[in-house]
Amino acid sequence: MSNKREEEINMPLKIRPETPSDYPAITEVNDLAFGQPDEAFMALELKKGALDGTGGVAEYPEEFNNV
User: What are the beta bridge partners of residue 41?
Assistant: First the structure.
């Protein structure tokens, strides 16, 4: 997977629902804070340290509620 577009707009990180097989070669940070299975959520640092000292809740548009 290319992160070229994200680099073009200077995006520091990407947060998205995934499964482990989606990106097996990329080191991911799993969300364990809310008791969700590891495969339910993944965050990818596009810039080293982008997730350092961060916390919070990622909210998706309502259209994603039944995905």
Answer: none
Structure confidence by residue, pLDDT tens digits, 2-58:
566 666 667 777 777 766 666 555 555 554 445 556 556 677 777 888 888 887 777
The answer to whether the predicted template modeling score (pTM) of the entire model surpasses 0.70 is no
**How is the beta sheet containing 13-16 ordered, strand by strand?**
13-16, 42-45, 29-30
- For the chain, the domains span 1-48
Encode the chain in three state secondary structure. Answer: CCCHHHHHCCCCEEEECCCCCCCCCCCCEECCCCCCCHHHCEEEECCCCCCCCCCCCCCCCHHHCCC
